Amino acid sequence: MTERKTIGGLLAAARSQLQRLDPAAAQAALGDGALLIDTRCAELRLETGVIPGSVHVPLSVLYWRMDPTSGHDDPILTDPDRQVILICAHGYSSSLAAVTLQDLGYPRATDVIGGFEAWLEAGLSTAPFVAARGDST
Predict the structure, then answer these.
(1) Domain for residue 1, yes or no?
(2) What is the mean pLDDT of residues 3-31?
(3) Distance between CA 19 and CA 15 in Å, rounded?
(4) Of 21, 60, 61, 93, most Cβ neighbours within 10 A?
(5) Which pLDDT belongs to residue 132?
């Protein structure tokens, strides 16, 4: 019988495939043209703010928005040559998602070490969340 996997093991395996960025390096990459995708829910974005220049894509639809064959893709997001950086609240779900994006053809996909919490702790730029019409997530 195969040994059961753990989330800790999956996370370690995912992170071994990524060149993760600290918040300052992620901010610099954003300035160099990287795509920073915030996967946090609307409640957290309302509570803690957003990163200027980031794009919100909920984790629940991320893979469909990024896969040009899904029929639900967002052409603004689907350049496989562009560096894609994911940020979540604490840097856990973004690591697993970044590896999935690599599997979907985004070899430069990665995430932010420590997530949005580390971004705030580093004193980097944020802005208040302003809901766009129809933005419930």
Answers:
(1) no
(2) 96
(3) 8
(4) 21
(5) 67
Query: For the chain, what's the residue count?
Result: 137
Q: Is residue 34 part of a domain?
A: yes
**Structural domain total, the chain:** 1
CATH number, domain containing residue 76 = 3.40.250.10
Both tokens assigned to 57: 């894509």
Mean pLDDT, rounded, for 117-128: 96
pLDDT tens-digit map of 104-116: 999 999 999 999 9
Contacts of 118 (CB under 8 A, 6+ apart): 22, 23, 91, 112
Burial class of residue 25 in the structure, from the number of CB atoms within 10 Å of its CB (0-12 exposed, 13-18 middle, 19+ buried): middle
Amino acid at 31: G
Candidates 60, 36, 31; CA nearest to 50 is 36
Range of the domain at 24: 14-121
Looking at the domain assignment, is residue 19 inside a domain? Answer: yes
